[in-house]
Amino acid sequence: MKAWITKYALTKGIIEIEGRISDNFPSMFCFKRGVGYYEETAHGEGKDWHRTKESALARAEEMRIAKLKSLDKQMKKIAALKFE
Description:
Blueprint: E1 2-5, E2 15-21, E3 28-31, E4 40-43, E5 49-50, H1 53-79
């Protein structure tokens, strides 16, 4: 099954990968990034992994906007500091 991983969207981008849904946890997607690598997991369908590219793009955009808001808040906090 193909899925799109957004767990690392802000650092590594959206990862398109083949894998499987966990037998024990239906909201967990299991995948390997290369030959010989251990199996990784992404938890929460719609949060860390997606069945469609469109859903992954929408989630990545939400993450980007949230990060920009957080950075703006940090900038304002640092700009308000006064050293005497």
